[in-house]
Q: What sequence folds into this?
């Protein structure tokens, strides 16, 4: 069932529609928080492992800024692209009841999802355009012809 | 009762006859013995005759009772019919329950109930095991979480609309109307 059919069937009603800036911003913050917590957990775990294997002192592993930035970028891109491709919604989207679809309301393909993830990470302020655009489209949405809709009922 | 009445009354009649005859016989024997010995009515012969006839009467009555099957007589009594004729409702109406209750000291009865002992006999653990506490907690927790998420989504949607409205007014253009995405094709 497409979102349109679900709306016509009365299952979602007003829940369908293009999501605005605040919901999308909150979803992005939630995703960011998840990524940060997961990253810290990985760091701590690796520190603990290192402590048990190599012995004291207990220190967090560190690498060059370039490496860390690249690693964080790759992980975040994979995270966003995976969820947009697999379910159409990241955990942050899920929390706010949002879904990312293409112009024909379908889930994004892997290429478009990866590209959208890269664009979102490189130019986060592009999201602000959603407040100005009459279609609530961010700059990334305009480039890739994607839409973020309210979707509370559908389950991944 | 109707069918057994003649027999019963016949039996009674017969018993009376035997006893009466025994009494008559006693008098007659006593008189004859009194005359024969010329001892007078209150004499030793009269007393002897009395004892003789008393013993005779006892024997006769015992023999008669042995002959009568009292169980058979009892069997022939229609208890149901007797009960039918008794108006138990009327009897119940005459019982003053309030008065009976007023005479019962319920406090004293309650004092005699050993609650501790009853509680000791109740297996509270088994009762707790039968109550799905985990399930109740899980359901209420998930329901609360669901309500919180719904509230967050509603507030997010309202905030979206407010931001849209502010921007549309700033840009002096008609307000955005939420609409469904375009259908397939």
A:
């Amino acid at each position: 069932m497409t979102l349109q059919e679900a709306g016509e069937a009365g299952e979602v009603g007003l829940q369908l529609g293009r999501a605005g800036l605040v919901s999308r911003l909150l979803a992005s913050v939630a995703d960011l928080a998840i990524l940060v917590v997961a990253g810290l957990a990985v760091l701590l775990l690796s520190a603990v492992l290192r402590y048990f294997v190599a012995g004291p002192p207990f220190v967090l592993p560190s690498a060059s800024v370039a490496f860390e930035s690249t690693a964080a970028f790759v992980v975040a891109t994979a995270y966003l692209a995976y969820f947009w491709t697999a379910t159409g919604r990241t955990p942050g989207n899920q929390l706010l009841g949002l879904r990312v679809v293409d112009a024909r309301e379908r889930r994004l393909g892997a290429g478009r999802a990866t590209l959208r993830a890269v664009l979102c990470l490189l130019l986060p302020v592009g999201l602000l355009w959603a407040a100005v655009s009459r279609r609530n489209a961010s700059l990334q949405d305009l480039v890739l012809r994607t839409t973020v809709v309210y979707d509370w009922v559908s389950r991944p | 009762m109707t069918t057994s009445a003649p027999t019963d009354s016949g039996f009674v009649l017969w018993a009376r006859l035997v006893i009466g005859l025994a009494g008559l016989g006693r008098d007659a024997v006593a008189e004859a013995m009194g005359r024969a010995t010329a001892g007078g009515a209150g004499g030793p012969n009269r007393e002897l005759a009395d004892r003789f006839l008393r013993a005779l009467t006892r024997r006769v009555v015992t023999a008669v009772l042995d002959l009568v099957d009292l169980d058979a007589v009892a069997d022939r009594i229609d208890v149901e019919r007797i009960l039918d004729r008794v108006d138990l409702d009327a009897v119940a109406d005459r019982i003053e329950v309030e008065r009976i209750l007023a005479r019962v000291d319920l406090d004293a009865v309650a004092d005699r109930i050993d609650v501790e002992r009853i509680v000791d006999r109740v297996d509270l653990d088994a009762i707790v095991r039968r109550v799905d506490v985990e399930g109740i907690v899980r359901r209420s927790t998930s329901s609360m979480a669901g309500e919180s998420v719904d509230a967050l989504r509603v507030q997010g949607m309202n905030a979206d609309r407010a931001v849209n409205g502010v921007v549309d007014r700033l840009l002096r253009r008609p307000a955005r109307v939420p609409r469904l995405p375009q259908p397939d094709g």
Notes: The two ends of chain B are 101 Å apart (CA to CA).
